[in-house]
């Protein structure tokens, strides 16, 4: 199963801890099973239902993981490896990969092939359902925290440094895509 998910999300391979990598893959597998999706569907599901022509959920997850990794690498270079000034990399990366796993429960496919909010998604937004999936799969509390607080639901509550980074790189990708599509006249 982990191999199938590593093909879909090669950034899982950046997690050196085999158990953490497997738990992340299991979270995706469980969310897909519960939501009625396959790994290939991540290329079809839009990253948001909020605007037209959005890239796929897979593209967004990969972008957020890459941006989180680049943020970590930049901080490591600037702070010359001073561990006191660095986020925990495995936690950061696992949280970046899993931040939108709950969208596999939040969205549903229409008979016409479109996408809408599922019955569950109308009641629980993806930070909540994703945190539940991550916790069920035995992911560390700090990773569950990132999933739970990466969106507006986490506003007003404390966030770890890793959660702050994931929130910001998630928003960076989301907002840049939305603005670039609008600038291109794509009715974003």
Provide a brief overview of the structure.
The protein has 9 helices and 2 strands. By secondary structure, the chain is mainly α.
Explain the overall architecture.
The chain has 188 residues and is mostly helical. It is built from 9 helices and 2 strands; from the N terminus they run H-H-H-H-H-E-E-H-H-H-H. The chain has a two-stranded antiparallel ribbon with strand order 1-2. It is globular, with a radius of gyration of 16 Å. The model has no long low-confidence stretch (mean pLDDT 96).
The share of residues in helices is 55-70%
What is the tally of beta strands?
Answer: 2
Mean pLDDT: 96
Low-confidence stretches: none
The CATH topology turns out to be Hypothetical protein af1432
Distance N to C terminus: 36 Å
Radius of gyration: 16 Å
CATH class wording: Mainly Alpha
Outline the fold blueprint.
Elements: H1 2-8, H2 18-35, H3 57-78, H4 89-98, H5 103-106, E1 107-109, E2 115-117, H6 119-123, H7 126-136, H8 141-149, H9 161-183
Helix pairs in contact: 2-4, 2-7, 3-4, 3-9, 4-8, 4-9, 7-8, 8-9
Which features does this protein show?
single chain; two-stranded antiparallel ribbon; Hypothetical protein af1432; mainly alpha; 188 residues
